Amino acid sequence: MLFLEEQIMEVQAMHVITGATGRTGSAVTNYLLDHRQPIRVIGRNLERLMPFVLKGAEPIVSEPTNVKRLIKAFSEAEAVYVMLQPNYIITSNDFLSYQKRVISTIVSALEQAEVKNVVSLSSWGG
After folding, report:
1. What distance in Å separates the CA atoms of residue 52 and residue 100, rounded to the nearest whole number?
2. Cα separation of 116 and 80, whole Å?
3. Among residues 121, 95, 106, which one has the least CA distance to residue 28?
4. pLDDT digits (tens, 9 = 90+) for 59-89
5. d(CA 96, CA 99)
């Protein structure tokens, strides 16, 4: 019975990283992979996620406004690292509404996936 208990304790929690190819997201991703933690990486482009996939990460290709894909990505995660990128375009008249849509989508997905631990960082300073 002790052997079974030891095996159960070895099961590691899933971590999900949004913005995995960015500056802070890649640092978090590489740290977790270096410590042999199971992770899912979310990005808009599979090709850019491949360096992490080759190290053992599970890729999820999704826009930050796709609630169904994010719910799938966040499901059964112990923790999610949420990087809120500004998507700032100097000529955009829609910046604030885009940010609100992204935040609303991510919050909804986190709630529906019942994620208990979230770390959030915004690259928009003030």
Report:
1. 29
2. 9
3. 121
4. 999 988 999 999 999 999 999 999 887 665 5
5. 5
